[in-house]
Design brief:
Two copies of one chain form a homodimer. In chain A, α1 crosses α2, α1 crosses α3 and α8 runs parallel beside α9. The first copy, chain A, is an alpha/beta fold and about 375 residues long. Chain A contains 13 helices and 13 strands. In chain A, the strands form three sheets. Chain A has a six-stranded parallel β-sheet, with helices on both faces. At the A-B interface, α4, α5, β2, α6 and α12 of A face α4, α5, β2, α6 and α13 of B. β2 of chain A pairs antiparallel with β2 of chain B, so a sheet runs across the interface. Chain A binds a DNA duplex (16 and 16 nucleotides) through α2 and α4.
Chain lengths: ~375, ~375
Amino acid sequence: MSAPTVYDVAEQAGVSIATVSRVYRNPESVRAGTRERVMVAARTLGYVPSGSARGLASRTTRVLGLCFPDYADPDAEDADGDTDDGPGESELMLYSDEIIRGMERAARRRGYALLIAASLAQGPENLVAEVAGRVDGFAVLAQTVPVGDLEIIARRLPVVMLAGPREDASLDHLDHIEVANFDGELALTRHLIVDHGLRRLAFVGSTPDSPDGEARFRGFQAAHREAGLRVPERPDVRAELTQAEGRRAVGGLLATGGDRPEGVVFANDQMAVGALTELRRLGVRVPEDLAVVGFDGIPLGQLVAPALTTVRQPMRRLGEKAVELLVARLEDRRAEPVSVVLPVSVIRRRSCGCKDGNTDSVMHS
Amino acid sequence: MSAPTVYDVAEQAGVSIATVSRVYRNPESVRAGTRERVMVAARTLGYVPSGSARGLASRTTRVLGLCFPDYADPDAEDADGDTDDGPGESELMLYSDEIIRGMERAARRRGYALLIAASLAQGPENLVAEVAGRVDGFAVLAQTVPVGDLEIIARRLPVVMLAGPREDASLDHLDHIEVANFDGELALTRHLIVDHGLRRLAFVGSTPDSPDGEARFRGFQAAHREAGLRVPERPDVRAELTQAEGRRAVGGLLATGGDRPEGVVFANDQMAVGALTELRRLGVRVPEDLAVVGFDGIPLGQLVAPALTTVRQPMRRLGEKAVELLVARLEDRRAEPVSVVLPVSVIRRRSCGCKDGNTDSVMHS
DNA sequence: TTGAAAGCGCTAACAC
DNA sequence: GTGTTAGCGCTTTCAA
């Protein structure tokens, strides 16, 4: 006894398979009595429509996908999460959690399900293809999958790139969403310069291949230009976007001697948090001796002491927007590629010298 | 020009469709030269295998599913998350985020993708069917979907119930995973009684239909029995598991007059956090005047002042375990139903009277 | 090692 | 309103 199909239900209800199909796809088109018979038959047989068959026949799955990088060490099977107390390594992932959340909600409202796939650094990179074969369209977090694969797949179905400007010219025709990295960092830096009167600021950037990091640095530059200060040509330090690297980075900055900066702008919160730890160790007071700010708005930034001033990215909204674009694109495949920039907001906390609680979030688009 | 299929690739490569299929499913079974030709053809055509067709032909999707409740107000489209600062309402959802995370990882390692679906309270409850039709098996958070639906679907494919003991006898034959609610609450209560010398404890439970809540209360009772104290027959108060209700609950407890309790044990962290707020308002000092403890281990519990003593559930592990069970069940459909109880750990923070930082997490299975 | 052919369970014209 | 009939794109024997 295998799973019942439309044929079984049809026979049991004394109708044709087409009618069974109609009852599920478009109940109104079937007379109430017939519909009832079909439903009873289906229930007694335990019929569950096959998504695969449906998808094949209708050439549409009603599933949207999301590919994102899995930052965590894939081998750390038992070494993570559940044993440590509270927000720790796992904060790293909140970023994608929020996006997932946003997409799931938005998708569901529109009658789509969400298929998620993290690309383990190790795994074979046919990840995209795996996903692509099962969905009507999908979103990809920048730098998650090889551009080549994406190019091919994007010819077949809608793809929207998330967070991180078009990383490759060949992906120019894709819809894409980014956050206001430039404007956010500009506003944040301006706050440091104008409101706190700081003059000597250092920037700790990411490796040059991160478009987000570069855009943030340009915002940092712009704030200097705007204030008539000397515009730095490049980040004072470049590092990986981790806490450990953040610690290392401040360490280096302060060891340099010469005129110590009055404030350090980090390309992300993780590094800034790491720096905070290191600074405490070094006996450098934040914000009295040195202001520290980040970028992202991870919850951890609120836990640390002093609480971290930062720029919050609207991750949830990012997910929602992705679904919007996907659905729109599904409806009109040949519309012009869309490029959306989501506004961010500066979150003022203690680490820049503001009194805590002064959490005005000002939008910067 | 529609998407290329096996036929197109086969023609282009000068082989049969069977060979194309083999190249994807079992490359070893095709001669290297032939394989190469097929792969080149596929690449130039931009071929992406159809998951639906594959699923239909092979009767297996290589996708696992997860159904969970969406706690948030579905209408609050623009009113949430991105605008408020830091952990707030969104903490409510971390629970499922962690499970998703755990399942995704575990699934991926085993070559499965993850389909997630939150059931909006509003939406039609065919959610399960939607998911069921597209996956090889799935996990369900207790009380997410109607038992009736589940029963039918479980006849066709593996289902594992998460968190919350078998809620219905008819679901007895399902695999299921729960956390050590009883043991956890027992250990926590014992800590209050033995280590802090508290005698008059109140329990704020959930509505009686929550199996988790009831199990926790039994743990609470057991600790009393163990200590030779009078065993309470029922929770002092019952409430919904929200912060607002937590506030209301303590308010009520303290207003009663008579002998005020020395400590309050809440069935979950949310309520406990709400209580903390209310107690501050009332000028009751925690833990000096009143000890407060929760259950769950949400990050918010660490943010509040005083930090909340609680019992942490291993959410991530829950997700991983779910995949394990599902995969095992897929391999042997007729094995005995499995019932797993995951160990929890007591997290001692300030709210019970411990000094902060004393975060021994002791496992209790 | 490769090919031919028969479905997998459903949808979508198109008739009636 | 309902039935008939082709496929949808792939996997999978079974032969060759």
